[in-house]
Amino acid sequence: MQINPYLSFDGRCREAFEFYARVLQGEIVMISTFGEMPDEMQVGDEWKDRIVHVTLVANGQTLMGSDAPSPHFTKPQGFSVTLTTDTSSEAERLYGALIEGGTVFMEMQETVWAERFAMFADRFGTPWMISCNKPL
After folding, report:
1. Is residue 129 within 8 Å of residue 82, measured between CB atoms?
2. pLDDT tier, 38 (very low <50, low <70, confident <90, very high otherwise)
3. What are 81's strand-pairing partners?
4. Is the Cα dihedral 13, 14, 15, 17 positive or negative?
5. Cα–chain-centroid distance for residue 2?
6. Using CA atoms, how far apart are residues 34 and 114, in angstroms rounded to an integer?
7. Are 9 and 54 in contact (CB under 8 A)?
8. 69 Cβ contact list (under 8 Å, min separation 6)
9. Tens digit of pLDDT for each residue in 48-89?
10. If you write DSSP's letter for every residue of 42-100 in order, what string do you get?
11. Is the pLDDT assigned to residue 41 strictly greater than 70?
């Protein structure tokens, strides 16, 4: 079994996933728009180019998402996508890229459990935690 985060956006899914692919050094392996859906599932013209489903694979991990037409979109809350790295430098790299234009909840720092740890929401509203565990 796999557990994969599925992120919802209010029209910025393509932009977000292209950004995530660059930052996470991954690949978008599948992307479909609402305009490609069968006629019975069509939405208005303003949604034809928005994403009905996208799959990103980075380092063997899968992140999926879509745009959610109003009133189905809700702002993300109550969870974080967590990235655990092997090195402090990779944690710092990810943090520096993902926080651009976002909101920091906890600056990158050492904690009791981690060599580097941070909590924030990126410019798309996705909540993240980055962690680099302390050596055993």
Report:
1. yes
2. confident
3. 128
4. positive
5. 17
6. 42
7. no
8. 43, 47, 50
9. 899 999 999 999 999 999 999 877 888 899 999 999 999 999
10. ---GGGTTSEEEEEEEETTEEEEEEE--TTS-----S--EEEEESSHHHHHHHHHHHTT
11. no
Could you tell me the pLDDT band of residue 45, with boundaries at 50, 70 and 90?
confident
Instruction: Write the CB contacts of 6 (distance below 8 Å, at least 6 apart in sequence).
Output: 64, 65, 66
Written as six digits, the tokens of 42 are: 């069509």
Tokens encoding 22: 């660059």
The tokens describing 16, both together, are: 């977000």
Region 85-114: mean pLDDT is 97
As a whole number of angstroms, the distance between CA 49 and CA 135 comes to: 46
Q: What mean pLDDT is predicted for residues 26-49?
A: 86
Instruction: Reduce the DSSP state of residue 19 to 3 states and report it.
Output: helix
Mean pLDDT of the chain: 94
Q: CA-CA distances (angstroms) from residue 66 to 81, 83, 89, 118, 135? A: 16, 20, 31, 26, 37
